[in-house]
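Example 9 (inverse folding). The structure is encoded as follows.
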C-alpha cells in the first residue's frame, strides 16, 4: 500500500509521529572533535560468512535487500553490544545530486549516499517487530558512501516491486577499517522508534556514478501513479539533546 509519510516534508512527520521531536532522534551531525574516545569500547565484529540474502525490493522509500534471519549466521557483535545482533535488511539513502544524500553528516558535511545495515537483538526479543519497539532492540551500521564501486543491477523501479536476490554477501560492502562512532538514536523513517544503537563507520565506502544514477531512476510511486523520482530520501540531522557520541578510536 501507499504510505502516508513523504520525504518531501520530514519536518511535518511529528504531526503523525510525535516521537519525531523526542530526545534520541536520528540521524545527527557527528562533530568529530566533540566525540569522546572510549577505550572500553570493543572492536566491532562483523560476521557475514553466509550468503543469506532473500530478495531486493522497492518499498516506496528506498531499495532494500532482505535476509534470512532465523539463526545467527549473519550477525554483528562486539562494539558496544553484549549480544550478537542479526542482520535483517540493508537499504540506501541518496540525493538528487552529489552534494547531499547521506543522513548522518560528519562535521556538517554530507555524503552523496548512506548505506544502513539493520540488525536486531534476537537473544532478548522474539521477533524483529518486538525488537524494533525496544530501547535496546536494534543495531544499525551506517556507512557513508562516496563515488566509485558498482554493486548490482536494479530491476525494481516501481514502489511495491520485489525480485529474488539470493547469494549476496554484504561483506563486500564493508570498508577495511571498522573504526566507528556510536550513539543512542532512532529509526530515521516513521515510526521513528527510539530503538537503535547507531554504529557509524569512520571510513567511507565507494559507489560508482553509474550505480547512483540507477538509484535515482527508481520511483517513489507505483506503476499506476504519476511518476515521482526516488531521490533525496534522507532525513536531515536532528538535535543532539545532550547525547554523547563515543568513538572507538583515538583521533
Ligand atoms: Zn536508513
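The amino acid assigned to each position is listed next.
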Amino acid at each position: 500500500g501507499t504510505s502516508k509519510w513523504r520525504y518531501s516534508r520530514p519536518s511535518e512527520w511529528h504531526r503523525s509521529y510525535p516521537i519525531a521531536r523526542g530526545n534520541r532522534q536520528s540521524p545527527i551531525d557527528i562533530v568529530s572533535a566533540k566525540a569522546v574516545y572510549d577505550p572500553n569500547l570493543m572492536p566491532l565484529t562483523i560476521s557475514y560468512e553466509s550468503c543469506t540474502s532473500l530478495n531486493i525490493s522497492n518499498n516506496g522509500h528506498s531499495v532494500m535487500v532482505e535476509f534470512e534471519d532465523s539463526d545467527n549466521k549473519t550477525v554483528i557483535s562486539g562494539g558496544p553490544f553484549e549480544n550478537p545482533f542479526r542482520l535483517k535488511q540493508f537499504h540506501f539513502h541518496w540525493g538528487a545530486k552529489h552534494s547531499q544524500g547521506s543522513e548522518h553528516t560528519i562535521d556538517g558535511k554530507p555524503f552523496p549516499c548512506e548505506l544502513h545495515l539493520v540488525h536486531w537483538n534476537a537473544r532478548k526479543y522474539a521477533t524483529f517487530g518486538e525488537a524494533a519497539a525496544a530501547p535496546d532492540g536494534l543495531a544499525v551500521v551506517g556507512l557513508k558512501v562516496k563515488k566509485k564501486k558498482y554493486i548490482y543491477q536494479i530491476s525494481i523501479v516501481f514502489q511495491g516491486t520485489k525480485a529474488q536476490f539470493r547469494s549476496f554477501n554484504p561483506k563486500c560492502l564493508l570498508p577495511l577499517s571498522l573504526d566507528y562512532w556510536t550513539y543512542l538514536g532512532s529509526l530515521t523513517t516513521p515510526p521513528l522508534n527510539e530503538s537503535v544503537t547507531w554504529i557509524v563507520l569512520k571510513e567511507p565506502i565507494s559507489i560508482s556514478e553509474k550505480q547512483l544514477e540507477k538509484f535515482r531512476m527508481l520511483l517513489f510511486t507505483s506503476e499506476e501513479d504519476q511518476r515521482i523520482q526516488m531521490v533525496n530520501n534522507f532525513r536531515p540531522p536532528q538535535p543532539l539533546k545532550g547525547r554523547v557520541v563515543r568513538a572507538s578510536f583515538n583521533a
